[in-house]
């Protein structure tokens, strides 16, 4: 099944956060090489990022996650640590934040 970035984030997903399609600045997929699932990322004009996971067959997993605007390395590190506490894998965090998995690992090593 072919996935289209424009259809992953529905109008209802954006409306939950008071946004419309015109507020989307960037859309991207990151593919998990092990299972073929994709993390869809929509960056909004207010700096927040919306995340949605879609399996290789197109099944949407869970709800849309909202990551607040990150303005510093300290904020990024706090978000990484928080996501880890909530059972999100390093690979998923790296895809969500568009950083390398080594960066995530280094942040978690410095606890």
Whole-Å distance between the termini? Answer: 41 Å
* Overall form: globular
Q: Report on the biggest sheet.
A: 4 strands, antiparallel
Poorly predicted runs are none
- Share of helix, binned: 25-40%
How do the strands of the widest beta sheet line up side by side?
1-2-3-4
Mean pLDDT: 89
Protein name: HTH cro/C1-type domain-containing protein
Domain HTH cro/C1-type: 85-111
Characterization of this structure:
- It is a single chain.
- This protein has helices at 5-8, 11-15, 73-85, 90-97, 101-109, and strands spanning 24-31, 38-44, 49-54, 60-67.
- It is α+β, with helices and mostly antiparallel strands and 111 residues long.
- It has a 4-stranded antiparallel β-sheet with strand order 1-2-3-4.
- A hairpin with a 5-residue loop joins strand 3 and strand 4 (60-67).
- The radius of gyration is 14 Å and the shape is globular.
- The protein starts with a helix and ends with a helix.
């Amino acid at each position: 099944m072919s996935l289209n970035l424009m259809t992953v984030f529905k109008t209802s997903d954006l409306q939950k956060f008071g946004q419309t399609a015109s507020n989307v600045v960037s859309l991207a997929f990151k593919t998990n090489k092990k299972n073929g699932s994709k993390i869809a990322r929509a960056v909004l004009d207010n700096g927040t990022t919306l995340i949605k996971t879609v399996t290789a067959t197109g099944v949407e997993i869970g709800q849309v996650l909202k990551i607040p605007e990150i303005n510093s390395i300290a904020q990024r590190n706090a978000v990484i640590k928080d996501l880890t506490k909530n059972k999100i894998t390093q690979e998923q965090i790296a895809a969500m934040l568009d950083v390398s998995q080594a960066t995530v690992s280094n942040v978690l090593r410095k606890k």
